[in-house]
Amino acid sequence: MKKIKGALFLLLSWISFCTAAQSTAEEWYDMGLDTGKDEEKIRCFDNAIRLDENYSNAYYQKGLVFIKLLRRPEAITLFSTAIDISPKKEYLEARGDAYLLEQKPTQALNDFDQALKLAPKNTKLQLKKCIALVETAKYTEAEPLLTAVLQIEPLNNQALVCKGRILYGSNNIYEAKKLFEDLIKKNPSNADALAHLGRCYELENDIANATVFYQKAASLQKNHLFAQAGMARINARQSGKPCDDCPTLPLLSAFARKYCLAIGNSSYKQFNDLDAQPHNDAKAIGERMKKFNVEAQVKIDLTVKNFAETLESWYNLVENADVVFLFYAGHGFQKDGMNFLVPVDAAGTIDSQQCITIQAILEQLQRRNVKYVVFIADACRSHIQAARGFTPKGQTQNQVEIKPNGQNQVEIKPKGVGNYFMGFATAAGKEAMNGNGPNGVYTTAILKCFLKGRRIDDIFRCARSEVEKLAGKIQLPESTESMSEAFVVE
Questions:
Q1: How far apart (Å, rounded) are the C-alpha atoms in residues 475 and 489?
Q2: Which residue, 128, 239, 320, 470, shows the most beta carbons closer than 10 Å to its own?
Q3: Which residue, among 199, 202, 109, has the nearest Cα to 161 in the 3D structure?
């Protein structure tokens, strides 16, 4: 029987060879397009390539078959060959799609950019570029591009899902959930909307609902990559392992030099006392950091002089560090785009030179060549002109007046900190709540979310959701980041 099968295989191979010799590359290519069987398609395109090694369309079509068969790395190689021969739009687009499926959004973004140079008004390509930008957390760049797409195709489901991803990626989880829920009402079989609604619940730490929506998406669309990744994260979290989609990200435990400075200012001389909460907050953050082997310093009630001396000493300590955490609880405010931290002996009418800006701290850390910077500010960001003297006891808002200095204040943007994340307890111009427990509302949320196995950026999304549960819409945390690569708390 084996001899018969072997002879039959040789006969078929000989027939194929003879037929290939009699047909042109174009004829084999056309036969590949006409047949419905994947194996036959591959054989036909192989014969076309054998007769013409520069037949770019044959490489491209064979790559599409491999995508269908989930042989994506091989497909990428075929698309690359086609691009080397002739860099056509459809080849670049196909390779970009494959890179997205392989979770390589940076490479995908490059391909979509190249394809858009060949077809700059192609709405489909613009949307794919937007998706790649979202995958790389470049939400600010993605937003105007998506707006342009939605102006042309306002009901495009992929575009609307992308809009929701931008919303929750920018910490607007409530708005994202509403958008996905509306999409699901219109089409209960919208697997993408179901999967990303699951992600919203996951970011809110509502694992039960996240699981439900991930499973619904997976049941509607087999091999839904986003739903599968979500379930893998949940399973990893429940097993105590690092997040499943972060195997290539650095771990906090692997960093050799990691530091934390936690500051709690409460006993103000000219402003309302904040009782013990900022002290408790700084101590709690310091203790949490020590559990992850982060060298932590806790400083209480820093004056203008103490603040400056502490920071200067700390800057020297953390030079060339892998990661630094800086936590501040106390009075704060925002003015002209600058975020100020207030020493306990600041005068009733504050000269801006008495206070410390977060932006200036970031600039100093940049000069010290710190790789990762995580800044957490549990403070108000309101600015209302007040009379000199104490603000009424019990009022949560820090009321200050800036003494004019004759200069226009402009935001200092750090030029060299490649990976920084800043989490603010509340939105610009708003107050931060104290809460009823030993810690402030935002610190309570951070402590609840700062757990093993989580990406650092996911921790702040989780904290925002926790604050919403505790304070409703009264206090909405904000964050800003420049993260080319996140790390995992492990």
A1: 26
A2: 128
A3: 199
Quick one: average pLDDT of 243-269? 83
Tell me the two tokens of residue 143: 């937003």
CATH number of 135-239: 3.40.50.620, 2.60.210.10, 2.40.160.20, 1.25.40.10? 1.25.40.10
Question: What is the DSSP secondary structure assignment for residue 252, as one 8-state letter?
Answer: G
* 123-135 helix and 139-152 helix, angle to the nearest 10 degrees: 150
The domain segmentation of the chain, as residue ranges, is 21-120, 135-239, 258-489
From CA 324, how far away is CA 311, in angstroms rounded? 13
Tokens of 121: 């008004």
The angle formed by the CA atoms of residues 232, 463 and 308, to the nearest 5 degrees, is: 125
Amino acid at 443: T
Report the topology of domain 21-120.
1.25.40
Report whether pLDDT(8) > 50. Answer: no
Q: Are 325 and 294 in contact (CB under 8 A)?
A: yes
Nearest residue to 450 (alpha-carbon basis) of 435, 460, 440: 460
Task: Retrieve residue 87's tokens.
Answer: 């860099």
pLDDT bin (cut points 50, 70, 90) of residue 404 is very low
Q: Is the pTM of this model over 0.85?
A: no
| Strands of 311-453, DSSP E | 323-329, 332-335, 338-341, 356-357, 372-378, 419-424
Q: How far apart are CA 243 and CA 227, in angstroms?
A: 14
Domain topology for 258-489: Rossmann fold (3.40.50)
CB 382 within 8 A of CB 431: yes
Tens of pLDDT, residue by residue over 260-274, are 999 999 888 877 777
- Please give the order of strands across the beta sheet that includes 332-335: 332-335, 338-341, 356-357
**Would you say 240 and 452 are in contact if contact means Cβ atoms under 8 Å apart?**
yes
CA distance 490 to 484: 19
What is the rounded CA–CA span in Å between residue 364 and residue 373?
11
Same fold, 21-120 and 135-239: yes
Q: What tens digit of pLDDT does each residue of 274-283 get? A: 778 899 999 9
Residue type, 44: C
Give the pLDDT confidence of 131-181 residue by residue, as tens digits: 999 888 788 889 999 999 999 999 999 999 999 999 888 778 888 999 999
